[in-house]
Amino acid sequence: MRQERSRAKVFTRRALLLAGGQAVLFAALGARLYYLQVVEANRYTMLAEENRINIRLLPPPRGRVVDRFGDPVAVNHEDYRLVLVPEQIGDLDKALDIIDRIVPLGEIERRRVLRETRRKRGFVPILVRGNLTWDEVARIEVNAVDLPGVAIDPGLTRHYPQGAVMSHVVGYVAAVAEHELTGDPLLELPDFRIGKNGIERHRELDLRGAAGASEVEVNAYGRVIRELGRQDGRPGEEVTLTVDLGLQRYVTDRLAQEQSASAVVLDIHTGEVMSLVSSPGFDPNLFSTGLTMQQWNALRGDPRGPLSNKAIAGQYAPGSTFKMMVAVAALETKAVTADQRILCPGHLELGDQRFHCWKRGGHGPMNLHDALKHSCDVYFYEAARRVGIDRLAPICRRFGLGEPLGIDLPGERGGLIPSREWKQATGRQAWQQGETILTGIGQGYVLTTPLQLAVMTARLVNGGRAVVPRLTRPQGVMRQDEPAPRRDLFPALGVAPASLAAVVHGMVAVTNDQGGTAYAIRIREPEMAMGGKTGTSQVRRITMAERERGVRKNEELPWRERDHALFVGFAPVGAPRYAVAVVVEHGGGGSSVAGPIARDILLETQRRDPARRVPPQHQLAQRE
């Protein structure tokens, strides 16, 4: 009996312990359920929704680029692209094989897809093929059931209706390179393209806009069932250029007659660039749709440099177009007076060196006016020697030479105005007086860009104001009926008006006085007459032996060894408004090659007179 009671007590204790353990377990389970279903309810509801709902970025429409009159030069065209989401695909190689049977894929495209799949996050769509035809779109949609994670994505492609005419101004867009990723998810979208050159690159953030978002419901396989909501992004801004598209076409056609050339037309009062052309150009649409390796190699290997914007990055010895700078420096430093005559016997002696004038036998006694008119080398040899490089270099920089001008384009180069300090910094031997003499005619170390030569000319003829070139206008500004800006909008260069007048008078004589080096190419309409200066710069050193036996004519030399032809000018003479600079690579003589081009450009510019024309939409607003 006692033994049975003992067993009952043991059983009871064990039952209580077991019941207590169960109670604790059930309490813990209840607490956990309460935590998950009540405390964490919002979190798990959100996670469940994320499995059902995807948020996808929507690329914004890129802003348009238009010329000064509103004519489009960069717009967007709708296209269709094939994309895939790696994490929804499964076997990527098998999926690409299926796609290849429907829409042929090249080996390069296949490798790119595999590379981007490794580089990007699994949920980011990868572009497979762009610019699909309607037939290709239809074939993909018919086979959609066999391609989970693959979809047709409607989008916008950048289009350049003017093609090569505006290629170096507008630039182009292309796919985002790996080193350009900044963490912005917009840059990881399939086939998202950013500006790589020109205005497209300089104004990239303005043109890009801000991304939108689409909320879509998906099934267990990741296929979109429906769109639940959409928030459109902010379109990119419209950029208005200062360029006159009609004039740009004319200049492009005119330069196309030469193998390699560039030209810049400026409004001398505002600094607005009316035309900026580097020839030959390229078709920027090729970069929007994707270059083939053959196309890329052809562009990159072309000796004429179609991808280089020579108007802002081509650096050339300015030749005789630099003589105006020597003239201004000589007058400002009183090394020479305007009426003082310097004898030109055909050469200048310096120690055992002889520096020749272009005219054998010399020009005789020359004052400043005649020296510019006849482009006498000996006069400017001597003027530069008297001024000295230490006083010449600072004056040249005042006129925009020797440093970038800050135009709103990437890739501008600064040229070179040499000095003693520069030469010492490069580790060369001390500055020699013979180098100053060569500098006097724009040879030696001097380098300038066509844009700098145009700005130099503008500052000479606008009364000595430091006008700065610009290629874009403030947003929404498209007006032509405003009077010319006041001269005091730009700081004065600190050059005496008499010095400027003497130099400009000499430039007028170059083209309008008999005997001037460009008299044969003058503008015969008095109200449109131009002033200017020819220039020819050597691309190789002519040895004494070659000079003694007679150097072959430019046209007899290989193209790469011919001189560059230059011309700078302005018009109209009575009330200057436009400046032009033309450089023809390996063209030969400035007066025979570059001069006629500059004359024709100034004539067309004045006939169009883009600085004063009112755009059609503004004319309509005025009538209303």
Topology, element by element:
Blueprint: H1 2-39, H2 41-52, E1 53-58, E2 65-66, E3 72-84, H3 86-89, H4 92-102, H5 107-119, E4 126-129, H6 134-142, E5 150-159, H7 167-170, E6 172-175, E7 193-197, H8 198-202, H9 204-208, E8 212-218, E9 224-231, E10 239-241, H10 245-255, E11 261-267, E12 273-279, H11 285-289, H12 293-301, H13 310-313, H14 323-332, E13 342-344, E14 347-350, E15 353-356, E16 364-366, H15 368-374, H16 377-387, H17 389-398, H18 420-425, H19 433-439, H20 450-461, E17 472-473, H21 497-512, E18 531-537, H22 544-549, E19 564-571, E20 578-584, H23 590-608, H24 616-623
Parallel strand pairs: 2-10
Antiparallel strand pairs: 1-8, 2-3, 3-4, 3-5, 6-7, 8-9, 10-17, 11-12, 11-20, 13-16, 14-15, 18-19, 19-20
